[in-house]
Amino acid sequence: MNHSVVSEFVLLGLTNSWKIQLLLFVFSSVFYMASVMGNSLIMLTVTSDPHLHSPMYFLLANLSVADLGFSSVISPRMMYDIFRKCKVISFGGCIAQIFFIHLIGGVEMVLLIAMAFDRYVAICKPLHYLTIMSWKTCILLLVAVWIIGLIHSIVQLVFVVKLPFCGPNVIDSFYCDLPRFIKLACTDTYRLEFMVTANSGFVSLGSFFILIVSYIFILISVRKHSSGSSSKALSTLSAHVMVVILFFGPCIFVYIWPHPTSHLDKFLAVFDAVLTPFFNSVIYTFRNKEIKVAMRKVCSQFIIYRRIS
Fold it and tell me: How far is residue 71's CA from residue 38's CA, in Å, rounded to a whole number?
């Protein structure tokens, strides 16, 4: 057959145990809402406080946008499907989910590199920081981030959408996972699976190594500064490193590990979709005094406004 006759796919979900499903629903709901509130508060704080109108916080606010988008692509659907006996998603819905997952995932990868570059300039070239990281540079970086993310996602899907699906339509996951989606095609997909691994796995691994090398250079430069500025730089840098490990760890494991296991892949996917966006907002909030102070001001202003109204 030269065309697809499958119009929908069945998702097996996370588990068949009702107790575990209920626990997962409570767990996912709590952390998803906390992630939405935390990342929304970061965006609101950076936007409303003039003291935070700098390249570092501009990039941080955009990271919160990406985190919010990534978790919203997977988490609401996952929580909705927990209470459905037959977890069905349309062919178009599956393709759309894959597209946005890889779009936002690619955006976040490049955005983390841009944030590392910002820290490199701030720490290693402080006298030229405002010249190098001008608002024009920030806008160009943001445009480049979204273009690269879009290219990454389109490259993943350009061959996938033309695959013939004529038989099995069961995906052993709680969302449309691209590697498992490809395996359902009624044709030889070895080369396509290799391309997906190269595109997602090696891009993740390459980006991770770029970030680690850049942080090593920054650490070497930090040792040459005074103790006061060094401690502040190390505090900011440690937050960046933790976020990078949280984001890239599951991605690299899922796409690079030669012996994938269904249960571990599902756990890492839940971690990436639910916990990582929450932890990112917590890490950047609690390890940055300026944003904590700004958040207190925003919250106090909101409370005063509520009392007046």
Answer: 13
Structural tokens at position 138: 């920030």
* 224 vs 56, more confident: 56
Summarised one tens digit per residue, pLDDT across range 261-271 is: 556 777 777 88
The amino acid occupying position 125 is K
Q: What is the pTM of this model?
A: 0.86
Residue 277 near residue 250 (C-beta atoms within 8 A): no
